[in-house]
Amino acid sequence: MGQALEPTRDESSEERAFLASYKASEFDRPSVAVDVVLLTAEGGSLHVLLTQRDEHPFKGGWALPGGFVRMDESLDEAAARVLQNKASLSGVFLEQLYTFGGVRRDPRMRVVSVAYYALVEPGRLRGVAPTGLTTRCLARLGLVGEGEVGGDAVAFGADGALPLAFDHAEMLGMVVRRLRGKLDYAPIGFELLPEEFTLRRLQAVHETIMGRALNKDAFRRRMLAGGMLQATGRRETEVGHRPAELYRFITKAAR
Amino acid sequence: MGQALEPTRDESSEERAFLASYKASEFDRPSVAVDVVLLTAEGGSLHVLLTQRDEHPFKGGWALPGGFVRMDESLDEAAARVLQNKASLSGVFLEQLYTFGGVRRDPRMRVVSVAYYALVEPGRLRGVAPTGLTTRCLARLGLVGEGEVGGDAVAFGADGALPLAFDHAEMLGMVVRRLRGKLDYAPIGFELLPEEFTLRRLQAVHETIMGRALNKDAFRRRMLAGGMLQATGRRETEVGHRPAELYRFITKAAR
DNA sequence: TGAATAGTGTCTATAAGACAATATCCC
DNA sequence: GGGATATTGTCTTATAGACACTATTCA
């Protein structure tokens, strides 16, 4: 570039005086948190990791895993830390979703929350939310205004819809719409599958995200023409019918 | 919904005790700011409002208009306030872009900045940045890695590329890519035009955003088929050739 | 009348949808 | 062999790009 200024090189006495006199804590400021929407796709539905709150506010309600951003970590790092601490996951797809900053979204105090979403294949979530636990669950995700622009999402537990804390229903609605929008041009379907998969499984993931059936022929053609799939030569086994070829996702760099 | 908990109704003594004991200012926290990318399209280029910094850091560099978020306003409201104060604009398209939260993006202190972008027609920017002023300008915007996924943008003033403060080159790069991605399915081209416009002008705006020529016939067909345009019956005047019909953008609601 | 762009109609190439035919596994 | 799904090939239809032709304004 050569265009950006280099602040560290510009250590004039004038600047040093300015920095010394700058009172960083002079004003009230919001807290900054990250919330992570950890998603997986299984059984034709998206599932999201939720934890039950044992304190006020929204005591007993279900919330996304989150935490406050530390002074020595970036937002991305904070989201990765939350994912590591709450789900023992690292190295997964993790991307910023949107930042929620309503004045009263947390009744305790002003909290600006940067929402992230993570995508992981079901196999990596074994043990993260064992059935039977009441404090955390993988809830099935459904949209309220199906097919509409705005609207919240609903999370279903074993006994029906779960009460969601804060504005987390809005976050969940936004993440589904974001996925649907990105699916056509970003390689996000692969993030929800193991390393090797059949075209049928990939289509099932896409159908799960879109919430509707897709044309098999067109899907197959589009995927193979897209140049992001590499045939392994191997085939699935023990399926009770003709086994399909296993494919692998190849990044642009590896092509 | 009926699923969300209602915190205000849940005023048990237990909750009141909790809220009273909650120490909101116990921890260090980042400052929260908004930066606004105010864009318009003219002469085949996108233009962005920049102000020259007269203080450290990045003294003399060019920055997006921005400001700290107040405790009594949402992020959207803060962005609208900045737009009103710095450009005397209200009621324009304004949408969140991305949140930048690198640890050292501001050398003074930790600042998390929520970037917004606003779109206005050139006519509404008359007087906002008069030529000749040295403290603010409407800079022509160009992408660095044209056609690539990532990469910064460059802002050109009268004398060439302007040095951009903070991570604002990254914000500008992101806004161009966001616009290109949204153009196909969101009605954002209209936001950069006056209320009535010809198809040729609309195509010029799309070409400006995409940075490449578009097929005239296909563009025309697609726009007319999209159902978002209403012919006014009037035509442009004084153009030195056959005048084109004037169209108006109609929202879904008005259809 | 000429220059310049608007607007229409038609042909072709490409991608999507539908559907039939064949292939290959497990039981 | 029968059941089930994979895979291939073909036909039809919708859309994008190319291009020719006509229309309308101002100079």
Mean of residue pLDDT of chain A?
87
Q: How much helical structure, as a percent, in the residues of chain A?
A: 10-25%
Low-confidence stretches of chain A: 6-11, 22-26
Q: Largest sheet of chain A, described in full?
A: 9 strands, mixed
Measure the end-to-end span of chain A: 28 Å
Tell me the radius of gyration of chain A.
22 Å
Approximate shape of chain A: elongated
**N-to-C order of helices and strands of chain A:** HEEEEHEEEEEHEHHEE
Percent strand of chain A: 25-35%
User: Which class best fits the helix and strand makeup of chain A?
Assistant: alpha+beta
Note the main attributes of this structure.
255 residues, three-stranded antiparallel beta sheet, 12 strands, 23% helix, 28% strand, elongated, DNA-binding
Describe this entry's structure for a reader.
The structure is a homodimer of 255-residue chains. By secondary structure, chain A is α+β, with helices and mostly antiparallel strands. Chain A has helices at 13-21, 75-87, 168-182, 199-210, 216-225; strands at residues 31-42, 45-52, 62-63, 66-68, 93-100, 111-119, 136-143, 153-157, 160-161, 196-197, 229-235, 245-249. In chain A, strands 1, 2, 3, 4, 5, 6, 7, 8 and 9 form a nine-stranded mixed sheet that branches. Chain A has a three-stranded antiparallel sheet with strand order 10-12-11. Chain A is elongated, with a radius of gyration of 22 Å. At the A-B interface, helix 1, helix 2 and strand 5 of A face helix 1, helix 2 and strand 5 of B. The structure holds a DNA duplex (27 and 27 nucleotides).
